[in-house]
Amino acid sequence: MKRLRQHPFSIIIGVLMLCCVLSIALFLQFGDVKAFQTWKWIDILGEGGAAAFALLWLVLVLKSRIHGQVTTLFVYGLCFTFFHLWMDVLDEFIKIPAQIQWDTWLESVPFPIGLTLLTLAVYFWHQEQLAINKQMQKRERIFRDHRLFDALTPLADANYFKSELNHMIEKNPSDTHSVILLDMVNFNQINQDYGYDEGSQILQHISQLISLNLRQTDLLCRYAGDRFTILMCNTDHQQAQAMCIALEKLISHSQYFHRQSNQLIPLHARTTYCEVIDRSAQTVLKRLNQQLIHLKSTELASKQRRPVAQPNPFATTSEATQ
């Protein structure tokens, strides 16, 4: 209840409810309640259902959108539309004498106003979506499905990546495409040292950092845990290798500080890549995972042979995968 009172549109919603109550009082004051036998159930269900849906849409808009021009137009448009439908519903239960005209005005005037406001809302929502599409350009491609969005980072998840990769394979089987798999080094240790909340913030930082350094045609998704996948269209293995080297250096040189202590947390990543020569996304990702396992084994064996040597944080690991 407290949240409702604090809502920017709480006043207009209160006015709408007050108008509905006053309309009932006016109908009862000047009209006669129809006998039960004369009720037209088809009209009642149709007009009552339409009013219920308009009210549901209003609630969903209020719960899902922040305050702004588009939201305001949607809210006012739905309020006028709901009131028009509400008057239609009252007409089915209460008969107003023919000499009274104000009920016709109350029923007819709000409807075109509501449709006009809703049309403006849809137009500006269209403009808003075009702007959002530009922001999401590196995070989605052919289709949008909120169920495939990652819960932690502003990226799509592995299922979305597989769908996009399969679509690309089917649509352009002869083109040269590459996929990069990026894995954070010692990320479990970061979670243990600084906590999972800080680890989550680091993943968001990494996702935004990578996204800013990709081409407009590339697609970045969170694969699993601390791994990210990048789909690079019209890209051969040499270009993919160069991108891997650049991304590893980018993350190693990035400056991430602990939110509370301002301590610098060093970040490093390993990458592997391959050209898309398989006929399914599952096979491509399986091959990349195998390359990543081999890369980790090679790193571990190298450390065991040289236990005293310190690893170079700026060394790239991409060449070891090919």
What's the quick description here?
The chain has 322 residues and is an alpha+beta fold. The chain has helices at residues 2-6, 10-30, 41-64, 69-93, 102-108, 110-135, 158-171, 187-194, 196-212, 237-253, 281-305; strands at residues 32-33, 94-95, 178-184, 219-224, 227-232, 269-275.
**Strand line-up of the largest beta sheet:** 4-5-3-6
Indicate the CATH architecture of the largest domain: 2-Layer Sandwich
- Under CATH, the homologous superfamily of the largest domain reads Reverse transcriptase/Diguanylate cyclase domain
Q: What letter string, H or E per element, gives the SSE order?
A: HHEHHEHHHEHHEEHEH
What would your notes on this structure say?
This protein is α+β, with helices and mostly antiparallel strands. It has two domains: 2-135, no CATH class; 146-321, Reverse transcriptase/Diguanylate cyclase domain (Alpha-Beta Plaits, 2-Layer Sandwich). The strands form two sheets. Strands 4-5-3-6 form a four-stranded antiparallel sheet, sandwiched between helices. The protein has a two-stranded antiparallel sheet with strand order 1-2. Helix 2 (10-30) packs parallel to helix 4 (69-93), helix 3 (41-64) runs antiparallel to helix 4 and helix 4 (69-93) crosses helix 5 (102-108). The radius of gyration is 30 Å and the shape is elongated. The longest helix is centred in the middle third of the chain and has 26 residues, at 110-135. The chain has helices at 2-6, 10-30, 41-64, 69-93, 102-108, 110-135, 158-171, 187-194, 196-212, 237-253, 281-305, and strands at 32-33, 94-95, 178-184, 219-224, 227-232, 269-275.
